[in-house]
From TrEMBL:
Residue segments, region Disordered: 1-26, 54-85
Biased composition range(s): Low complexity: 54-71
SUPFAM superfamilies (alphabetical): Ada DNA repair protein, N-terminal domain (N-Ada 10)
Domain of life: Bacteria
Annotated Basic and acidic residues bias: 11-26
Name of this protein: Prophage Lp1 protein 65
Length: 119
């Protein structure tokens, strides 16, 4: 009986050891996954902060440009070579580079023969 009991005790110790090893491996895996999740979260937060900073900078530049245009008396409405006027915020306003005339109001642009964009 002593050998049987010794074998059982040995088997039990082996099972406990294997169980502890599996638990250790599982804990290491969880810790690694947690670190990866934290790194991904930090990267996403940085990306969002960078994007917000970029947007804020663009808005500041736009406001500075608008303020300068108002101070110089130059209107904000662009009259293009194609006979279309573009207002700030419209689809093609920033892309319009062939400006022939500037207007302070839409009425001025229409009176000068310009039409609104179709979009």
């Amino acid at each position: 009986m002593d050998t049987v009991e010794a074998n059982e005790a040995l088997a039990q110790k082996k099972a406990e050891s294997e169980s502890k090893e599996k638990e250790r491996i599982a804990n290491e895996k969880l810790e690694a996954e947690r670190k990866i999740a934290e790194e991904q979260k930090a990267l996403e937060e940085k990306r969002i902060a960078d994007e917000q900073a970029r947007i804020a900078q663009e808005q500041e530049q736009q406001q500075a440009q608008t303020a300068a245009e108002v101070e110089t008396g130059q209107g904000l409405i662009k009259g293009s070579e194609s006979g279309i006027y573009h207002t700030p915020g419209s689809t093609y306003y920033d892309r319009t580079t062939n400006v022939v005339q500037w207007f302070n109001t839409i009425e001025e642009a229409v009176a000068a023969g310009y039409r609104a964009p179709k979009r």
